[in-house]
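Hey, weird one. I pasted the Acyl-CoA dehydrogenase sequence into the form twice and got a warning about non-standard characters only the second time. First submission, copied straight from the form history:
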Amino acid sequence: MSLLREQYIRNDVERERLKKVRELAMRFAKRAPKHDEEGSFPFDNFEDLRQGGYNGLTVPKSHGGEEISLYELVQVQECLGWGDGSTALGFGWHLGQLLHLRTSGKWPEPLFEELCRDVIQEGSLLNVFGSEAGTGSPSRGGKPATTAERITGGYRVNGRKTFSTLSPILDRFVVTATVTPEDTVSEFLVKRSEAVKVIETWNTMGMRSTGSHDVVLEEVFVPEEARIVTGSGTDDGSGWLLHIPACYAGIAMAARDFAVEFAGTYSPNSLPGPIGEVPTVRQLIGQMEAELRTARSVLYEAAAVWDRQPKLRPGLRPQLGLAKHVVTNRALQVVDLAMRIVGGTSLSKALPLERYARDIRAGLFNPPMDNMLLDQLAKEALGEFGRSSAL
């Protein structure tokens, strides 16, 4: 394992875990071109993860899981992202949501205990579907058009969700809905049934294998105990969302590895040695290293602060958002530099760089969005000098 990879490994437990995850990531990397070309969901990858017991990484130890920290989650995600961005991003939503439920306590304990048991015993996965065509990203505060009508014993849910990552494999998921006649917003745990339909709409430029199709709910019954009141539990600052930049850091690492190996081995007959000996190429490699190392330092520091300062978590959102902003934008630069180093060959479908270039752009559209984060940072800075200055 290279020094670059060793840098953020703190102990033998993490080293051994990442050794095993990397073996999976290498397997996923071999499958990625086929899934990308077909736009097919990587059931084989998720079966490998299930058999390896990775579905329960963020489940509390009291419920049979490993209860890994956010820092360790970032390590795992970065490693998986190196192998296949689509698999890593999808799996990250599951691991992240379970970490969030563990630290926020937002679910009623019987409901959470049942979920954890099924994750450990059956390898169940979870995600939250909040996006809709008419409201855009839920992070922007749009009110769900999906409705939950109160009826005897529970609710009748109707609606259509977009960007429903992992939809081909989930046997349960959470949806946001506007409750009638209360006119409030809540989350509901929905179990797969004939009333739930997955419409295969996901045909995108990048992240083609996340299975982020539309999910249609028609007269779905949800029992009273499966309602999760929005805003319940402890505010954990949404640290779990660092699974997103960790995935893109992994893709950037893969692009860097490919470009560096190429530069060190490719020797055109116009040169006496490999192109890595050309000063301009060495400058590009150095710039790529600087971008990647800066991004990773911000990412791992944010995760470490969140882990060791539980009381400060609600106020860490700007720093966590900054980590996502820095990583995704610098990851874009890393992949661009890698392609410049490799040259026109990087556009070939036979090589992974063009897939990395397509996948990496998806990070711009995962939460938190750049413009929202920058506005948040500006408000925080202006707030230092009083409300009047901010206006």
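That's the output from the first submission. The warning seems to come from a hidden character in my clipboard, not from the data itself. The CA atoms of residues 76 and 311 lie 25 Å apart.
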